[in-house]
Each structure stands twice: as structure tokens, then as C-alpha cells.
Amino acid sequence: MNPIILDERLSAAAKMAREALEGQEQPKGADIGCDHGFLTASLLESVPELTMLASDVSAPSLEKARRLLASRGLEARARLTVADGLTAMETPVHAVMILGMGAGTILKIVREGVAQIGNAALIVQANVDLPLLRTELARMGFVIQKESYCRAAGRHYVTMLARQGDAALPDARHALLGTCADGVTSEEQMDYLAWQRGVRVREMLSQAGADTPRARERLSAGGQELSIIAEAIGMKTCRVTDVLNMVDQIAPYELAEEWDNPGFLFGRKNAEITRVVVALDLTQQTVDEAKALGAQLIVTHHPIMFSAVKRVTDETREGRLMLDMAQAGIAHIAAHTNLDAAQGGVNDTLMKLMGAQNIRGEGFVRAGELDEGMTFGMLCARAQQKLHAAVRAYGAADTPVHVLGCCSGAGGSELNDAMALGADCFITGEIRHHEALDAVDKGCCVIEAGHFETEN
Asked: What is residue 216's predicted lDDT score, i.e. its pLDDT?
């Protein structure tokens, strides 16, 4: 009979349980909230002479566990019972496992069953509120001796092993980071913290623009936690000028058109920054999100201003944005036509997204070969899918296309340069109607996919 295959989450708990049971005479374990019994069955098969208590509040789930154990000849070594918490644990065991619940539920079970747990290893795996779990376990006298990190079904999990002892309450950093507070030593820990950082960013963005006591409290707490996580994964503070130089290395400002206005446009050049918001346009929503995240810099594709500004007042959109940013201490950098023209910039990215190969060209125009057998209709469908765009098509759907040309944004004026590179199909964000019709007449189909969509 093949061994039971556990997912990464249950495998992490099983490994920790086996370590806790190793060397015990007549080892005993308890799987609280056993669900369908996979962890119980795996441990019974892998730990000789082990006996298990498997309990769950769901009778149907427990019946499935019972059938699983019976099918593998393990039912004699397990006692299955419908029970809430640790109420069914009548004799001491060496390891108690409580997995797949919220921190509040786990803490309730532990608090009501401290006496039953006794000297056993307590193995817990909460799906939310880990700082609360660490803090309250310590308050109840449990010392967390080990944590392991894994990813399963797109989520990251921390499995903890704790025992009763002389526990000290963790500070905010240790409550948030757990064993990572003493140093990130594995790729799993780094992946977990990066994921947690993303979770907090999304939580803070959900409060963007809100001005309630609860929103302010959540934003403040989220900002503090982001700073702690950033420090743990080695992110260091830099200045606006550092980002300005970094953008120049990626997309040299000298590549910009004369009429354009990229670079450092607003704020204090030497201000320290810990967070940056990147956007296509500088809008009120962008500023609100930057404020919500505690960001000190916004980097956009389109500049907030293209020409000289004589007044900054709340009577114009640009003025209101700049006043809002000044009050929040937010600077602004733009990378526009320099990023369009740069190697690896907007147009190269658009071509790769559309599946073009052997990309060539300079300035704003690129051209590249398409897959053999590609038709104009197929390419339009790809643009709709990849760019999330409602495209306007100029040309017959069954027309074979071999070479794609592109210019993101308002690129209709670059069509002839793309055709000079051999393009028989051209994609851009905006093009004049008569320009597109002229192109079709010359044998070049046109996809107008939207300014935002081709640059985003």
C-alpha cells in the first residue's frame, strides 16, 4: 500500500510531530480538529507503536476519517470522537496538534485545556493573527521552541512547536516575526516575509482615501509592521536622489523627447524614503494610496506637468495634487518618453507581451517576427487577453500577419517607421482614423488598443 501523501502544510506539522514523539516509549498523540484524518493516518503509519486521539466537532468529517483509517488497517490504534477542543483528552499525551484554525480559536482551545496539555509538545498552525497567537501563548506560559515555514495552495503557513515553561512576553518585533526576528536564515523564511509584506500592502491600500479612526489605526499599525518586515528582509532606507539615479540607469533621461518633462519634478531631493508607489498617472487615487502606505515617493510614467507652471493653487488639478503631496511629504519622479525608448522599456515589454521575437528598432518604434500561421484576428484576440483591452481593429480577421510593429501610447505617427522595418501589422494606443485606413490600404493591419492599456 502506498504511503499517504500530505500537502506541504500537513507535511510540516507531521515532521514536527514526529520529532516531538521520537524516543518516547509507547508514544501518544492527539489531533484536535482532525478533519478527514490524513495527518492522523500519516503519523500512525510513520511512527511505530503510536496511538492517537482524533477529534473533531464535525461528525461527517470524523466518519470520513474513520473510513480512511479502516481502509489502511489503522483503526485499532486510534480513538475517534466527536468533541469540542480538548474535552475528549482523558489521559496525557506526548504531542497535541491543533491546525487549520484562526488564532482566536486555537487560543480558546489551549486556554480551556492547559491542564490536559501538561508537558506535551503543543503543535499549532494558525491561518491568521500570528502575532496574537505568539503573544497569548506566552501569556499562558508556553515557550515557542521552533517554527517552520511552508507554502501550500498559494498561502504561506507557520507551524509552531511550544511547551509550557518560563515564557517571556514577546515585544512587537518578535510577536510579528517569530523566529525570523533572530535572523532570516532560509529561503522559506524570506518568501514568507515577502508574502506577509504584500498582505499588509493590500490591507493598507484597502484603506486608501478613508478618514476614519479605524482606518487611521489600521494604517498606522500596518506602516509599523511594514517597517519591521522591511528591516528583517534587509531592505535599507534610501533617498529620492538614489531612485532618481536608478531610473536614469534603466531609462536614461537623455532619451526623452525635447517636449517631455521626465525626471525629478516635485519634493525634496535628499529626503529619505522607505516606500515608493509606482503608477502610470499621478492622480488623486495614486496620492491617496501613497499616503495610505506611508510612501514618500511616487514614480509615474506620465509627468504631473509638461510645461512651466506659474501658480500652484487648489484651483487646478495639478495644484491640488502638489499641495496634497507637499503636506504629506511625498516627492514625484517621472520616466516618460525615456522609458518608452529605452532598451527593455515600455515598447520592448509590449512586444514581448504580444509574442514577438527577434525584436529590433530604436526610438519609440519596434518590430519583431510573429508565430508562423498567425492571423490578424488571432493577434487581436491576444491583445485583448494580454492587455485587458477592448481593441479597435483595422483589417480583415483572416489576414496572415508575419511582422508586428509597435509604438505604445499615442503612436500613430510612428506607423511608417514600423512599416519600414517590415511590419505588416501595427499595434499602438491611439491612432487617427484616416492614418489607420491609409495603413490598411498599404497592406498593414492596425490594432488600436488604448493609451493606458499599451503603457500600463
From this structure: 82
